[in-house]
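The instructor's notes for this session suggest beginning with a concrete chain rather than abstract definitions. Hand out the sequence below and ask the class to guess, before any prediction is shown, which regions might be ordered.
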Amino acid sequence: MRKREESQVEVTHNQSTKVDFTETYKKNIKDSVHSWYLPFKNTFDFCFSLILFILTLPLVLLAMIAVKLESKGPVFYQQVRVGLMGEHIKVTKLRSMYIDAEKHGAKWADKDDPRITRVGHFLRKTRIDELPQLINVLKGEMSLIGPRPERPELTEEFSHEFPGFEQRLRIKPGLSGYAQVHGGYDIDPGQKAKLDCYYIENFGLQMDIHVFFETIKTVITGEGAR
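After discussion, reveal the predicted structure:
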């Protein structure tokens, strides 16, 4: 197992709030997942993401217009998230909340969260707000299917509150994941970590096919959305 150092990071939110903390969870991450399936998965991720990016571009453009018409502020927002083995990645999402939503710091979305705009509720229900992250998949930072990436400060917090939360980082984060389709936003971080670890323990083609079809079902029904 390679040596992992604790690191001091500074996270900047869209609202220009800076938070300093030490990432202690990195030293507890076990070795990354190895499987014969990974090269196939990486190739499929790139090819299918490129097709999805082209096909959904008109949809993203319409969503951009809707976001801009409803509330002031940028159409997109970027956040630092934690990727494979604790590496930081920058993800882009369509804005679904008002611009001052996190003026008091990072917080998990609540059910019927008042910070979410009307357009934002629809974007979250249909997962359209996540589509810009196809670029992260094309760059090799994310996969189509895997544990959803979390923010560094929340990863640090949850790894102490729910021991083992950091083991989600043994595999690339995904655009959709086992925990998203079997729990969505209605579970706590500890339950989410258990579901993600179950995905990792049963990692393979059959599992990804299962999550893929469950994701389609989730998008159609809007289950788990807030």
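Then share the key points. The first strand starts at residue 7 and ends at 12. The two ends are 39 Å apart (CA to CA).
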